[in-house]
Known about the structure:
Elements: E1 44-48, H1 53-64, E2 68-73, H2 78-89, E3 94-98, H3 104-118, E4 123-126, H4 142-163, E5 172-176, H5 189-209, E6 215-221, H6 228-232, H7 235-239, H8 254-264, E7 275-278
Parallel strand pairs: 1-2, 1-4, 2-3, 4-5, 5-6, 6-7
Helix pairs in contact: 1-2, 1-8, 3-4, 4-5
Amino acid sequence: MTDYPHPPFPEQEQELPGSFRKMDPVPDHGEQTWKGANRLEGRIALITGADSGIGRAVAIAFAREGADLALVCLNEDGDMQDTAELVRQAGRECLVIKTDLSQAQNCRDVVAQTVERFGRIDILVNNAAHQRSFAKIEDISDEEWRHTFATNIDAMFYLTKAAVAHMGRGSAIINTASVNSDQPNPQLLAYATTKGAIQNFTAGIAQMLAERGIRANVVAPGPVWTPLIPASFPGEKVSKFGQNYPMARPAQPAELASAYVMLAEPMSSYVSGATIAVTGGQPII
């Protein structure tokens, strides 16, 4: 609880989608700390939003647990190249796909490319997200509202729909929601609304896919120190990010990875339709 950085942080801002390498302090994704135990040996995982933040931490953990990965990003920049290199250093295969998931056909193409490379999908991690903050509803353009939904929830539907045809019994779907699913931040109205939809989508799909032996669960993070933060909020808010939570700091991405590994591993065979809150002590309703 005391090893990770606490606010105040330096005031900082970035353009969306942002880069972890430009953040101060640089986030911890488990690069030096995650030690694998073969919990996902031989599995094939597709992870979206995998270049930085939670997606990068999950990619590192999954690779060190023995999974081969397809990593999806919006921009194949230095962040993605660095993440892919860490996967390969773990001795695992890595397919990098650069695409805009707000387009339905791109989602279907991602699944097709993954199956062409690996033959199947055992784990689908729907993690990619878009967010921007607005003080008033009048400030949210129609285009911004539609883009947030297209990226955060529409893509999840298209990816899941395409992937399940290539997922066998024992497979797992893990969707990233948020504490905003239950406690919406009004300045993140569009984002928070999609996160509530993700939680409901997952609860429904878990029931729908149970007879096929496919599990579906949600991870609901609290504040996490990722590039979305300096790319979404003014510097003054970034400097105080996470201080109002019980641990008085944001999570580092590495602290989220264990929840995804637990939900992905075969030993969690009766866990489906669940929401795993990783909120540093903040209750969710």
